[in-house]
Amino acid sequence: MAAVLFDMDGTLVDSIVPIRNAISSTLEEFGYGPLCPQDVTYFVGTSLSEALLHWTPDPAPMVKRYQEIYIKDLAGGCTAFPGIVEMLDAMHGKLDMGIITLNANHEARHVLGRVGLDRYFDHVFGDDAQRSPYKIKPHPQHYFYALNKMGIIDDDTYRSLDSIDDMRKSNIEIDTSMVVYVGDTQKDMIGSKRAGINAIGATWRRDRPDIAEMLAKGGADVIVDQPSDLVKYLKTRCLL
Q1: 3-state DSSP: the chain helix, strand, coil percent, rounded to 5?
Q2: In the chain, what is the straight-line distance between the N-terminal and C-terminal CA atoms, in Å?
Q3: Range list for CATH 3.40.50.1000 in the chain
Q4: So what's the pLDDT on residue 130?
Q5: Would you tell me how many other CB atoms lie within 10 Å of the CB of residue 44?
Q6: Is the pLDDT of residue 45 over 80?
Q7: With contact defined as beta carbons under 8 Å apart, do 147 and 153 qualify?
Q8: Domain boundaries 16-77, corresponding CATH code
Q9: Does an H or E element contain 113, and which?
Q10: Does this model's pTM top 0.90?
Q11: From CA 112, how far away is CA 167, in angstroms rounded?
């Protein structure tokens, strides 16, 4: 069966404002002041732990507090982007769907439930810091783990990929011709290309006028402007 892997924030879920507010509240609680506009870029396509290293050498307590604030107080401000439900309905049961996200697994599941998308996804592969058995995107191990757990590559092949950081430099062959990854950041595109997966850039976030250019620089194979465009593309590829 064909498979589509999605990023979550900015691709399926409009969560930019709630996330920024939760980050800002966390920084203030720990005495760093509110999030400044020039600091927002630290958090784009990067794990929260990594981004917070700009403020503290030990981000773990801040990550924990952020997740508490976000889940308890602010995740209710998240919504599915227009057209996402219709897009997922068109795919549901016809191909396998998973999520590769920099959210912690429990955090991602909570948000998906709040916006009514949890019923579409049996597979969610998040960033649980030290508990995650893979290096996170844009490292390809995040993608390889997902492909293995979804039954697209077998255990022996997965183990053979343990030291690979870019499939374009590897002589190992895996069949990802029926797999695509859909994301909204340059790092999403870079990661999927390093994993040998076709990269589809989604521009419906609309908060960045240069988003299409940014995705193209990341190596996007295709750029789609509406969720319905993704459905059309998958049909042309005979994946749907």
Answers
A1: 50, 15, 40
A2: 10
A3: 3-14+78-236
A4: 59
A5: 16
A6: no
A7: yes
A8: 1.10.150
A9: helix 105-115
A10: yes
A11: 31
